[in-house]
Amino acid sequence: MTSRINRSLAALVLCLLCWPSFALAADPIDTFQFWRIRDGMSETDVLTQIGQPAQISEVTKSSALVPTVQGTVLREKRRYTYIYPSTSRNVDIYVTFEDGAVVDKAKVPR
How many Cβ atoms sit within 10 Å of the Cβ of residue 86? Predict the structure, then answer.
């Protein structure tokens, strides 16, 4: 009985871990929503406004000197792009983040 429960629990945990890989493609967003995205918006705000992207592209990871109260610190900067299909058939919407904040947005022809 106990091994049966353990197997069921293990199967449930495995399903939950694999859940993101079963996600459906993102719904197209209209161009009006593109204008709601502003530089400096957080990643969470963008996800709330227009939803999950169809694809995430990791552009670069680099090190940069960042001034702090204690002095200058070398830390890693992460830059990545969310790609959304638009309701227009020939354009995708790219939203680029650096360390979790929007730094660029563009409509890119397919």
Answer: 18
Q: What is the per-residue pLDDT across 31-68, written as a single tens digit (0 to 9) for each? A: 778 888 999 999 999 999 989 999 999 877 778 787 88
What confidence score (pLDDT) does residue 24 get?
A: 42
Phi-psi region of 70 (alpha: psi -120 to 50; beta: other; left: phi over 0): alpha
Contact, 99 vs 41, CB < 8 A?
Answer: no
Q: How many other C-beta atoms can be found within 10 angstroms of the C-beta atom of residue 99?
A: 14
The DSSP call for residue 42 is B
Say if CB 33 and CB 51 are below 8 A apart: no
The confidence band for 78, taking pLDDT boundaries of 50, 70 and 90, is: confident
The size of the chain, in residues, is: 110
DSSP label at residue 35: T
CA dist 39 and 25 (Å) reads 25
Residues 6+ apart with CB under 8 A from 86: 28, 29, 30, 31, 34, 92, 93, 107
